[in-house]
Design a protein that fits this description.
Elements (H helix, E strand, L loop, with lengths): L1 E2 L11 E4 L6 H6 L3 H7 L4 E4 L15 H12 L2 E6 L1 H12 L4 E7 L3 H5 L5 H12 L8 H12 L4 H8 L18 E6 L8 H6 L3 E6 L11 H11 L4
Parallel strand pairs: 2-3, 2-4, 4-5, 5-6, 6-7
Antiparallel strand pairs: 1-3
Helix pairs in contact: 3-4, 6-8
Length: 237
């Protein structure tokens, strides 16, 4: 989904928004005010739905890194905001073609996803089973919450599960050092997945912002995050 026109941005460089698991562009970025905020700053916005989500329900096995690189190549370079799974897709793309990424904001990109291999299909197996089950286990609050998020966003549970079980490219810790874009990392002090301090130490030219008392899914919906990221991505002249 693209909003605005290239002439809205003085540079013609779009802002690409990449959501996390179970939600989509409309349910996260538009509802939380991100699209309106960037358009008010004169930017063209492209909402990239992850495979198996939103407008990409029929295409669950595509690697979002490929889509990001295609968009960036088409426009010459892009500014990018990614949340959670979307943040890691952005970061992986930025390690493969760093020259295509001008400014990058990563929300809820917890170190544990990389250091503990949480991104792998094997580690995702319990969540895949929860999504594919006829009913959520009554004694599993996380399962109930995740299925509710999928339903509230208008996503298809089986398509989201198919995305999770598909092996995708993922950056290594060593590759993080090649990222050249100014990068803003936003972590929540109460994020269940943990902090982003290793990323902050490893990625060059990085700022780290911690949102007090924010849990994982609070990070992209809070006003402090929105204000900080829009100012970072579209700094005042």
């Amino acid at each position: 989904m693209t909003t605005g026109t290239p002439s809205d941005s003085p540079s013609g460089r779009p802002v690409v928004l990449v959501h996390g698991i179970a939600t989509n562009t409309e349910a996260l970025w538009r509802t939380a005010g991100w699209i309106d905020a960037f358009e008010a700053a004169g930017r063209t916005v492209i909402g990239l739905d992850l495979p198996g989500h939103g407008t990409e329900t029929d295409n669950p096995h595509r690697d979002p890194v490929d889509t990001l690189l295609e968009l960036a190549t088409k426009h010459g370079s892009i500014d990018t905001v990614g949340f959670s799974v979307g943040a890691w897709a952005v970061l992986t793309a930025a390690t493969e073609r760093p020259e295509l990424f001008h400014r990058v904001a990563l929300l809820g990109a917890a170190d544990s996803v990389l250091t503990q291999g949480l991104h792998t299909p094997v580690m995702q197996a319990p969540m895949i089973a929860i999504l594919r089950a006829d009913e959520a286990p009554a004694d599993n609050p996380m399962a109930i919450a995740m299925r509710a998020m999928v339903a509230d966003s208008g996503n298809d549970r089986n398509a989201v599960a198919a995305y999770l079980e598909t092996k995708k490219r993922f950056c290594t810790r060593e590759a993080l050092t090649v990222v050249t874009s100014p990068t803003l990392l936003v972590q929540g002090s109460d994020d269940e997945a943990g902090p982003s301090t290793m990323l902050a130490r490893t990625i060059p030219n990085t700022e780290l912002l911690s949102i007090d008392r924010a849990r994982h899914f609070d990070i992209p919906t809070g006003e402090q995050t929105l204000t900080a990221v829009t100012a970072f991505i579209t700094p005042a002249n």
